[in-house]
């Protein structure tokens, strides 16, 4: 599998989906690189569950005994590390200890499920070129990190883990670009087709595990390349605007900057970037 140059500019599912969700948030985070400072409890829980799952899957792959202790330790360490690095924003009436306990419950629930077999890779990072529907490669590559890859005979399954406050609908998985990114990454890197399974750890009053299966083909991967090409052009042309919705804005870390944003402030920013470029060019000559 590919070794990865982490410093190289690249696309990722989160960058692509962030631009599609709200180009202005993309601008604040990825162009201006403004620190976010705050993260919602739901995001922290989701990101803390992942090291717990990885600790479990790695030990299964190594055929080392594993139980809740090692898994929960990895979970708590990640939660503590995130708390030190940023401010966690809880919903009204939500308590920190309840959130932490909810993550523990989800992990214990998953540990009671049949363990995945024939593990090929855990938290594997791929860096691969993107290709448009004409077969032309894009200059900026795609980075995709798969939670888990398993095999059955010659077939590979990429497994993606989610935490969610509600069960997923089939259409969410069918239309998501995330499986497309994974399937393309595995195809380009290993030369094989792979299926995708979403495992959703649902944070309902009685937590449950939901599994959804999906697939992508060559045409889907070409369309992903076309889409990224279009986003690249939009970013080059500085097309950044707010997409206001309760879903987008309630957990957004850039609400103040967004309030201050106007199309005029944007053109001032752009012109100050032009001035800086002009000054840099003058100092070189
Ligand atoms: S507050 Fe809403 S519209 Fe503004 S940047 Fe954030 S997500 Fe976008």
Write a concise synopsis of the structure shown.
It is built from 11 helices and 8 strands. It is α/β, with parallel strands linked by helices. The longest helix has 22 residues, at 263-284.
Q: SSE layout and pairings?
A:
Layout: E1 11-12, H1 13-21, H2 23-31, E2 38-40, H3 41-61, H4 68-85, E3 87-89, H5 96-111, E4 119-128, E5 142-152, E6 155-164, H6 170-175, H7 177-190, E7 194-202, E8 208-214, H8 218-236, H9 246-249, H10 255-260, H11 263-284
Parallel strand pairs: 1-5, 2-3, 6-7
Antiparallel strand pairs: 4-5, 5-6, 7-8
Helix pairs in contact: 1-2, 3-4, 3-5, 4-5, 7-8
The site of iron/sulfur cluster has 12 residues, from helix 2, helix 9 and helix 10.
Structure explained in plain terms:
A hairpin with a 2-residue loop joins strand 5 and strand 6 (155-164). The protein has one domain: Alpha-Beta Complex (Lambda Exonuclease, Chain A). The protein contains eleven helices and eight strands. Helix 1 (13-21) packs across helix 2 (23-31), helix 3 runs parallel beside helix 5 (96-111) and helix 4 (68-85) runs antiparallel to helix 5. Strands 1, 4, 5, 6, 7 and 8 form a six-stranded mixed sheet that branches. Strands 2-3 form a two-stranded parallel sheet. With 285 residues, the protein is an alpha/beta fold. Residues 22, 24-25, 242-244, 248-249, 252, 254-255, 258 line the site of iron/sulfur cluster.
